[in-house]
Design brief:
The protein is of the alpha/beta class. Helices cover 34% and strands 28% of the residues. The chain has two domains: 100 residues, YqgF/RNase H-like domain (Nucleotidyltransferase, domain 5), CATH 3.30.420.140; 35 residues. The chain starts with a strand and ends with a strand.
Amino acid sequence: MTATEYNTQPSDTIVAGVGAYADTHHVVVLDRHGHRIADRQFTATFVGYRKLLTWLSGLGHIVHIGVESTGTYAAALTRFLISHGVAVVEVNTHTPILAPTAITAVPKDSSGRVEAIRTLRATRDSAAKARSSAWFDCGICWSPHRANYGKV
């Protein structure tokens, strides 16, 4: 776990941005004036989520947390934060410094029809890629638009 502390004094209110990766989550924290006060990296595990929330709570009152990839790498983190009463906003960017974007983001509702459709679509897309990859690995050329298919 790496950490950088820019200001060790607790702030009254903070916002945070989380860059989500397969094995780690990188968190950047801003105070209410938009000044970067800290950043730290946590493991993408339940223990890491608890450490992340405990660390953030020690820095000040959390207004909300902007999370990248709420439907993939950070899905479990998003559910964890929401279950602990933290407002989570979805941030669509691929940079590790997400907090400035998180200040103006809108809270995400991870329940209901939209999230269910997003999950189904992601699962379908993943299955379609796996099927294509399996066909290719077996040396079979297949197209849904052709009746005939066979070995390449």
